[in-house]
């Protein structure tokens, strides 16, 4: 079945890439504008989307799941925002469903969250609160958050569901490229979260809890030295038990930042991001479990060059390090909090094997934009464990004795997107092939199956 999936990938992807060499079309405004269809005034924003995804995996990496699986996922969104002077009132509904799963399918609240308000907020925009060139914004209620690089706090889009946060956020922009963001939020607990209810796409209102709190912020400065930008971040996450929901009682402080230069044609670009994580965590889910101090690290580095030729290729070398737990007095597994994964590491869904924890991975990336309708990327990553006695990344595969080595395998990822109807209908094809290394073959609980092939076909309509 692996080779059948790869054949499908090739049959769909290669002809499309060849067709992409045609001249760039003239992109017209979307013919399916919900705003125009409703005759809405200029101070009322309306938009919607509907995404259909079929994903299939052969050679599941994660233990105790179906070796092969196929899932149909549907996601509908509707957003509205009304502006009255400096005030804005917004709301957004997500309806995320999955079909074709069974008790061995990894269906969770990452795939299913039906008829839910992801956003419901009031906001105020202020011009020149601190003199000419300054701006401020305050937002209160349930909202989405995408902060900095989005590696720690995000509302991920590739995943079938997204993260919502209820609280308050303030943004300040000052002259000379200075900006700051501060927030206090209770991340939304997506419900229901039991397997039978999720497989049946049942509806239950999500909730917030004072037992799960995230707060912090970032300060940034554009053009610190020429085109180089800098950013400093701090996030505090506090989690405690609530009725029927035992936790590891995480109390984490994550501090760090990044320096970067944005990609530009004919220029080198780069990004370096470093984080240090401290705090404490319970050794288990029991209410009387002993506490353990936390000491973990994360590092990301990216060096790229954007060529000026027709397909606008960007070639980049990347490196990811996220510490794992070594079983000593301190807990060393880095926690990525609510960071995105799909746009940088690997798809979620049925795959969900690679995340920012217990990982060492260099990478070679190639991004292509043949024309305004098409974009393509090819990505290669070898994968190692930072700690050989901890679970590999997010796979749940572990050798507590450390006898299976560190090398997990080689991952090859490809994505192709094409606007079938400009700004209105987009086709996306994702494919991942993971050639398993010693660890994923020999670890005691590693599934005894072949290498892993994953494909996903997405069709998204925007209104």
For this structure, the CATH topology is Porin
Task: Classify the secondary structure makeup into a structural class.
Answer: mainly beta
Tally of discrete structural domains:
1
Give the mean pLDDT. Answer: 93
- What is the radius of gyration? 23 Å
Please tell me the CATH architecture by its name. Beta Barrel
Oligomer: single chain
Quote the distance from N terminus to C terminus: 37 Å
CATH class category name: Mainly Beta
Q: Describe the global form.
A: globular
Helix proportion range: under 10%
As residue ranges, the low-confidence spans are: 2-27
Secondary-structure element order, N to C: HHEEEEEEEHEEEEEEEEEEHE
Helical region count? 4
- Report the sheet-strand fraction: over 45%
Instruction: Please provide the count of β strands.
Output: 18
Biggest beta sheet summary: 18 strands, antiparallel, barrel
């Amino acid at each position: 079945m692996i080779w059948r999936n790869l054949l499908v990938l090739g049959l769909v992807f290669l002809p499309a890439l060849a067709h992409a060499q045609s001249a760039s079309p003239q992109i017209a405004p979307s013919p399916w504008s919900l705003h125009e269809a409703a005759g809405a005034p200029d101070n009322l924003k309306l938009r919607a989307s509907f995404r259909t995804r079929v994903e299939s995996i052969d050679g599941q990496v994660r233990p105790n799941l179906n070796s092969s699986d196929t899932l149909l996922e549907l996601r509908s969104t509707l957003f509205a925002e009304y502006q009255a002077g400096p005030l804005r009132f917004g709301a957004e509904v997500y309806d995320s469903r999955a079909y074709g799963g069974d008790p061995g399918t990894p269906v969770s609240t990452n795939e299913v969250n039906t008829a839910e308000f992801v956003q419901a907020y009031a906001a105020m925009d202020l011009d020149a609160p601190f003199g000419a060139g300054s701006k401020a914004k305050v937002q209160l209620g349930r909202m989405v958050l995408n902060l900095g690089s989005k590696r720690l706090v995000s509302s991920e889009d590739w995943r079938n569901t997204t993260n919502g946060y209820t609280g308050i956020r303030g943004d300040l922009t000052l002259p000379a490229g200075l900006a700051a963001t501060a927030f206090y939020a209770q991340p939304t607990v997506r419900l229901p979260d039991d397997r039978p209810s999720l497989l049946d796409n049942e509806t239950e209102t999500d909730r917030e809890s004072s037992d799960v709190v995230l707060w912090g912020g970032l300060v940034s400065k554009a053009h610190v030295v020429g085109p180089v930008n800098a950013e400093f971040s701090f996030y505090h996450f506090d989690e405690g038990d609530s009725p029927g929901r035992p936790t590891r009682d995480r109390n984490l402080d994550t501090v760090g930042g990044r320096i970067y230069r944005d990609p530009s044609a004919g220029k080198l670009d780069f990004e370096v991001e470093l984080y240090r994580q401290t705090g404490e965590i319970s050794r288990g889910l029991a209410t009387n479990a002993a506490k353990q101090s936390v000491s973990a690290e994360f590092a990301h580095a990216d060096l790229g060059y954007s060529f000026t030729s027709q397909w606008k290729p960007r070639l980049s070398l990347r490196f990811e390090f996220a510490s794992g737990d070594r079983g000593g007095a301190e807990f060393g597994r880095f926690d990525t909090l609510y960071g995105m994964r799909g746009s940088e590491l690997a798809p979620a869904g049925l795959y969900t094997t690679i995340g920012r924890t217990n990982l060492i991975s260099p990478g070679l990336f190639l991004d292509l934009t043949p024309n305004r309708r098409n974009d393509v990327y090819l990505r290669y990553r070898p994968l190692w464990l930072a700690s050989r006695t901890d679970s590999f990344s997010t796979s749940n595969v572990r050798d507590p004795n450390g006898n299976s080595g560190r090398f997990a395998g080689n991952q090859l990822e490809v994505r192709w997107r094409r606007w079938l109807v400009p700004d209105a209908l987009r086709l996306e094809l994702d494919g991942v092939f993971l050639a398993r290394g010693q660890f994923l073959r020999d670890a005691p609980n590693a599934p005894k199956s072949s290498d892993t092939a994953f494909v996903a076909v997405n069709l998204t309509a925007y209104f």
